[in-house]
């Protein structure tokens, strides 16, 4: 039994396969927390690389000071958005609802209601109303969960980055364990490779967000929209979410468009967002992802389609990193070695 155990420890490929299976099983058990884990990882990765970038230009600047300043700016930006732009968005929603109610109270609206009552039964209307109420509650619940997840991930990333050196030193102690050093070495091996692949995809998504923001801002300028800089910043933040972010930005942009030019500008914005969404999904996403990961566009596009079906919106974020990670583990193609050698 002891000899079999030692043979298992010495057999590195078999041992790493077992550790990888163990990690997948643990993540499956923690699937309810995957959103928090992924957001924490993304926030931490971005802040850590930002700290290193700043210290590259100002070597003597303490990392603690950079982290504190970064999170203070982020909190101020969120506070500014909530206190200034959220009330504007709510006011635009109220204006739109009042416009719809005013239309139904007009002569044309009364005629439309009579025609709808003629063709639609009361039971159908009641069922649709109940469905709408349930959808509203489910959407509110989802938004609440999203806000809690975002807040927890934000706090966890702050605690990690605020003690970056201590975290690194303490984590290295696991590699010197008398009993399970091999286990933590394999976990470190997989973690390092996944961080490299995920970082490459984050860089690609950043460039995609810049392209989306530039195209959207140019169109908004032609439409003479107010507060272009604020709208551009909002579009950039939403565009950091692959594919779905462009669609999410449609809601506030439509509100602003309706307040400026009415339903005509709303139609223009819908056409614009549809075109940019198609450009991102079918051109920018595969092209940037393939160029950064050195994968053919066909493979990248197929991975995005399959991962979106398997994991939903998160699949658009983790699909390519997981695929390139598996290629690296299987020895098919290594991602990140070229970057490290540079």
UniProtKB/TrEMBL annotation:
<dbReference type="GO" id="GO:0016020">
    <property type="term" value="C:membrane"/>
</dbReference>
<feature type="transmembrane region" description="Helical">
    <location>
        <begin position="61"/>
        <end position="82"/>
    </location>
</feature>
<comment type="similarity">
    <text>Belongs to the autoinducer-2 exporter (AI-2E) (TC 2.A.86) family.</text>
</comment>
<feature type="transmembrane region" description="Helical">
    <location>
        <begin position="36"/>
        <end position="54"/>
    </location>
</feature>
<dbReference type="InterPro" id="IPR002549">
    <property type="entry name" value="AI-2E-like"/>
</dbReference>
<keyword id="KW-0472">Membrane</keyword>
<feature type="transmembrane region" description="Helical">
    <location>
        <begin position="197"/>
        <end position="222"/>
    </location>
</feature>
<dbReference type="Pfam" id="PF01594">
    <property type="entry name" value="AI-2E_transport"/>
</dbReference>
<feature type="transmembrane region" description="Helical">
    <location>
        <begin position="266"/>
        <end position="285"/>
    </location>
</feature>
<protein>
    <submittedName>
        <fullName>Membrane protein</fullName>
    </submittedName>
</protein>
<feature type="transmembrane region" description="Helical">
    <location>
        <begin position="173"/>
        <end position="191"/>
    </location>
</feature>
<dbReference type="GO" id="GO:0055085">
    <property type="term" value="P:transmembrane transport"/>
</dbReference>
<feature type="transmembrane region" description="Helical">
    <location>
        <begin position="297"/>
        <end position="323"/>
    </location>
</feature>
<feature type="transmembrane region" description="Helical">
    <location>
        <begin position="229"/>
        <end position="254"/>
    </location>
</feature>
<keyword id="KW-0812">Transmembrane</keyword>
<feature type="transmembrane region" description="Helical">
    <location>
        <begin position="143"/>
        <end position="161"/>
    </location>
</feature>
<keyword id="KW-1133">Transmembrane helix</keyword>
<feature type="transmembrane region" description="Helical">
    <location>
        <begin position="12"/>
        <end position="30"/>
    </location>
</feature>
């Amino acid at each position: 039994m002891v000899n079999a155990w030692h043979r298992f420890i010495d057999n590195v490929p078999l041992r790493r396969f077992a550790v990888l299976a163990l990690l997948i099983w643990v993540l499956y058990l923690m699937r309810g927390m995957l959103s928090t884990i992924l957001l924490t990882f993304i926030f931490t990765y971005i802040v850590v690389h930002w700290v290193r970038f700043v210290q590259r230009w100002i070597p003597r600047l303490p990392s603690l000071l950079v982290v504190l300043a970064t999170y203070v700016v982020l909190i101020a930006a969120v506070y500014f958005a909530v206190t200034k732009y959220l009330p504007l968005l709510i006011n635009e929603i109220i204006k739109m609802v009042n416009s719809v109610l005013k239309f139904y109270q007009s002569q044309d609206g009364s005629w439309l209601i009579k025609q709808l009552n003629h063709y639609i039964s009361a039971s159908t209307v009641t069922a649709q109303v109940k469905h709408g109420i349930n959808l509203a509650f489910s959407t509110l619940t989802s938004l609440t969960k999203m806000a809690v997840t975002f807040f927890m991930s934000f706090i966890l990333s702050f605690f990690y980055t605020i003690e970056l050196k201590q975290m690194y030193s303490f984590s290295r102690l696991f590699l010197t364990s008398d009993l399970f050093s091999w286990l933590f070495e394999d976990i470190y091996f997989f973690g390092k490779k996944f961080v490299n692949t995920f970082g490459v995809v984050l860089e690609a998504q950043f460039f995609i967000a810049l392209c989306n923001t530039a195209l959207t801002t140019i169109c908004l300028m032609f439409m003479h929209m107010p507060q272009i800089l604020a709208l551009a910043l909002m579009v950039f933040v939403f565009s950091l979410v692959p594919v779905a972010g462009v669609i999410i930005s449609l809601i506030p942009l439509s509100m602003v468009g309706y307040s400026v030019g009415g339903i005509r500008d709303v139609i223009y914005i819908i056409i614009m967002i549809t075109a940019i969404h198609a450009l991102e999904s079918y051109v920018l996403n595969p092209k940037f992802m393939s160029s950064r990961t050195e994968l053919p566009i066909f493979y990248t596009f197929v991975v995005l389609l399959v991962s979106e079906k398997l994991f939903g919106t998160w699949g658009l974020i983790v699909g390519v990193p997981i695929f390139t990670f598996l290629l690296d583990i299987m020895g098919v193609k290594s991602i990140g070695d070229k970057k490290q050698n540079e």
